Amino acid sequence: MTVAASCAMAEPRAVRVKHRLRWGAWLLSAIVLLVTGMLLVAAIRAKIMNLEVFLTYFTSEQVLLGARNALILGTLALALASVIGLVVALMRVSGNPILAGLSATYVYFFRGTPMLIQLLFWFNALPTMFQRLHLTIPFTDIVLLDAPTTTVVTPFVAALAGLGLAEGAYMAEIIRAGILAVDKGQRAAARAIGMTEAQVLRHVVIPQAARIIIPAGGNQYIMLLKSTSLASAIGFLELLRIATDIYSSNFMVIELLAVAAFWYLVMTAFATAIQTVLEKTFPQR
Amino acid sequence: MDTSLKAAAVVLDSVSKSYGPVEILKNVSVSIAPGEVVTLLGPSGAGKSTLLRCINHLETISAGRIYVHGKLIGYREVGDTLHELSDREISAQRRSIGMVFQSFNLFRHMTVLQNVMSGPVHVLRTPKVEAAALARDLLEKVGLPDKADRYPSELSGGQQQRVAIARTLALAPSVMLFDEPTSALDPELSQEVVATIRSLAEQGYTMLIATHEMAIARDFADRVIFMVHGEVVEDVPARSFFTTPRHERSRQFVARHAG
């Protein structure tokens, strides 16, 4: 009674609200900024890079060619990997024990060995295994291809095959996860209205799985664009190979590595932009 | 048998279904006449859903035969063997058998209109303009003309189920199967779905409805099939099921649900 009365009588008093200071986060920010600053200062003091040289090579014809080659190789490899991944994923979920087993084995081998080994393997093993490639359309005399294997398996072809096959194993797992995430009821409803298995896949399963496949696929695209640098090991003229070729003659190591790194960043930005557009095309519903 | 088989909308002839050692359906024989509204009642696990899913071959059967309008479903009979039909042939049979699911199963990535158009456009290859006009008509019919451009996730459960019914109607099915159409809905929303189903009954659709909703069974069903443990215990006119249930299990069921 008295409490209620005194509350009612009291003048409304302005109260200040003061929140707890998250000092841990602020302290950490300070430390990170300090360390970064020290590294920058050290780099500038040591004059590790000549900016003029960087700018000259950044847009030089050779470097642009390397960047273009890397972009083409990475993009084609992703396309190849997506096709392989879709087929391997469908084999895995087919319910047929042999297809599922083959698919699991494929993923195990191509995901379980270093990409660099795979690239070197295709480049060296194919010409040894087959001296001459001879391809005809069955039951006709039309010859599609007839050439020594070494002329067909160029560094580009070997790199594309190596990256595409290896990446296909990752894409298979990503696509499988996407397919499994589609509710079983969606498939039942599609079949109940009379869609064939292929139509169910095309009109219902794939568009819904895409929501899950695209963010992970974008990640893989970025990885692939950078992995094209592995192709330098088999003599493909991509960005890193060109940069190392140049600095081994002029010794501007840091500048040329920076040029290459910068172009990889540009490519990554490009891949991220594509991913963003695709995510908007297949939004979460 | 032959004449009644041709005259009936749905015939189940000694149908059995088992998963390994577990028998889900035991020697079920049922015949449904065109225009008849039949409710499938029974406790959970009685095999009601499985029975419906066998009629459009979403589930395969272990023995027996199922006919819809005289056509053997899912198989071709050669001598004394049933050979399963191809994917394409089974899909063609499913077009005339509509199915409505407990969890609606509207295609999430499509708008309401696209959902209703999906059968005509993808399955019947109807031109899009024509299919869209039909879809709008059907949405009008189920009372949702203003939701055409919404996505399923923006609708209430009752609205989603009415869209699902419209999607099924778009293929002009000769038989409609309802698999517990109101079980995922609260009482108020389930009423609007019941009203939609009732209007279909009045339009003369042949319907087989597995349900726990007594209002459907009592108010406008012609017949009740009562199942327990995969067997048909009673197959009687709806009225007599509620007034004079013959078997012990159905008496208990009526007493519990009619109260």
UniProtKB/TrEMBL annotation, chain A:
Transmembrane segments: 23-44, 70-91, 98-122, 142-166, 256-278
Signal peptide: none
UniProt keyword list: Amino-acid transport, Cell membrane, Membrane, Transmembrane, Transmembrane helix, Transport
Predominant place of localization: membrane
Membrane topology reported for the UniProt record: Multi-pass membrane protein
Domain of life where this protein originates: Bacteria
Family that this chain belongs to: Belongs to the binding-protein-dependent transport system permease family. HisMQ subfamily.
Name recorded for this polypeptide: ABC transporter permease subunit
Annotated organism of origin: Azospirillum melinis
UniProtKB/TrEMBL annotation, chain B:
Native organism taxonomy: Bacteria, Pseudomonadati, Pseudomonadota, Alphaproteobacteria, Rhodospirillales
Subcellular location: Cell membrane
Family: Belongs to the ABC transporter superfamily.
Single GO MF descriptor: ATP binding
Matching SUPFAM superfamilies: P-loop containing nucleoside triphosphate hydrolases
Tagged with keyword Membrane: yes
InterPro entries: AAA+_ATPase (IPR003593), ABC_ATPase_HisP-typ (IPR030679), ABC_transporter-like_ATP-bd (IPR003439), ABC_transporter-like_CS (IPR017871), MetN_ABC_transporter-like (IPR050086), P-loop_NTPase (IPR027417)
UniProt name for this protein: ATP-binding cassette domain-containing protein
ABC transporter domain ranges (all copies): 10-254
Entry-linked Pfam families: ABC_tran (PF00005)
PANTHER family linked to this entry: AMINO ACID IMPORT ATP-BINDING PROTEIN, GLUTAMATE_ASPARTATE IMPORT ATP-BINDING PROTEIN GLTL
Membrane topology: Peripheral membrane protein
Sorted UniProt keywords: Amino-acid transport, ATP-binding, Cell membrane, Membrane, Nucleotide-binding, Transport
Key word Cell membrane present: yes
